[in-house]
Amino acid sequence: MAPPSEHPDAPTHHAAEQRSAAGGDRAAPASDAGAATSSPGEPGSSPGAPASAGASPASRHASSAPRGRVVALTGAASFLGRNLIGILEEDPRIARVVAIDIKPPDTGGAKLRLHTVDLTAPASEERVAEVLAAEQVDTLVHLCFLSSPTPATAWAHELESVGTMHLLHGARQASLRKLILWSQTILYGAHPTNPNFLTEKHPLRADPEERFFADKMAAEREFNAFGARAKGTTVTILRTAPILGPTVQNYLTRFLARRLVMTMLGFDPLWQFIHEVDAIAAFKLAIDSDFPGTFNIVGDGVLPLSTIVRLAGRTPLPVLHSAAGPLVSALWAAHAAIAPPSFLRYLRYLCVADGEKAARVMGFRPVYTTREALLDYTSAQRLRDVRLLQETPA
Predict the structure, then answer these.
(1) d(CA 145, CA 219)
(2) Which of 4, 25, 28, 166 is an S-S bond match for 18, by CB 3.0 to 4.6 Å?
């Protein structure tokens, strides 16, 4: 899954676009360590963002209890965070939306309160506890995960695994009613012994040596342990299929955007997607109602990889598996690949999840099928392809 390309997640590239440490579409290590909260007028502030310097958040908000629910989101500047904030702003049952990130989201309105917190910093545990208490948060949505793998594995570990521990340690000091975690179905791993559809009872068997997988699996374990100890707090884990749509950007969209798409010679595994609109709707559903447990969030139907490449209007590039590993390893080391070699397994073996539990318990029904999600993405990508061609000098 790694034709040559400049790696968008490398910390030294496109620094101006990669300031979010919140699992954004293009995340990179934060330039300023430690936790800080922007004051009005500072570059990181947004309308309605509280000032933190010289005043206690508890004293600022103690006199005005919210007349509705208060939802906090880590990774507020990520794709899921930005879109969820926009939806929550329009919900009259939501009194405040608390954004926890090092970068302000661009969808905030009058309800938004921004708190600039770097979850990789040791002091973030106390800062999170202070924010949750001061804002009287009842629901915390943890979206602070990378949407694409990065060579900066040490920083990714600090953000996703250690950052989750910091967040939960801070959450233990607050009276939260609900915790929601974003996870992914690719954590089940691609294996020749996988059943046709993997249920939530299936173990997570993604490559434990790959940080992109290992840190997310560690975050799930931390959330499950928190839920076992924190009585009265609903803990929900939503494992989304690879998210696809006209506006999302991740390793999958970059994979399908290439003119030549690498495939494995002799293999044609089934894939599934979730449309970006359905993924956002699933999180809103979990925010609105209580659904303890883990749920696969997937689109209906599956497609062979060969059909996906054809519908995307791309040309398959079959490669021998024995040659693909060394090639992708070299490209990944040179920051010239979309994903590390561990992702090659998904070009060979099945990793498709069963969404029956989410339909039965949550009432989640995706609007888009896997095929429709792909076609919606390809329609938008074709427009981007044309625009790029038009911008090319004659």
Answers:
(1) 10
(2) 28
Residue closest to 253 by CA, chosen among 367, 78, 376: 376
Q: Tens digit of pLDDT for each residue in 295-318?
A: 999 999 999 999 999 999 999 999
Rg (CA), the chain: 21
Residues 380-391, mean pLDDT to the nearest whole number: 74
* Residues 6 or more apart in contact with residue 67 via CB below 8 angstroms: 95
* Residues 324-355: b if buried by 16+ CB within 10 A, e if exposed: beebbeebbeebbbbbbbbbbbbbbbbbbbbb
Structure tokens at 387: 């625009």
Tell me the two tokens of residue 379. 């329609």
- A 10 A CB-CB count for 66 gives 15
The token pair at 152 is 């900066």
Long-range contacts of 47-52 (CB under 8 A, 24+ apart): 47/108, 47/109, 47/110, 47/112, 48/108, 48/109, 48/110, 48/111, 48/112, 48/113, 48/114, 49/104, 49/112, 49/113, 49/114, 49/115, 50/113, 50/114, 50/115, 52/115
- Token pair, residue 68, equals 């509705």
Taking only the tens place, the pLDDT of each residue in 359-375 is 999 999 999 999 999 99
Residue 291 vs residues 80, 248, 275, 284: alpha-carbon distances, Å: 19, 26, 21, 12
Residues in the chain, total = 394
The pLDDT of residue 107: 85
Q: For tokens 């309308």, what's the residue? A: 47
Closest CA relative to residue 148, chosen from 268, 235, 315, 20: 20
Q: Average pLDDT, stretch 58-69?
A: 56
Whether residue 366 contacts residue 274, with contact meaning beta carbons closer than 8 Å, is answered with yes
pLDDT in tens, 164-176: 999 999 999 988 9
Which is more confident, 167 or 60? 167
CB 268 within 8 A of CB 232: no
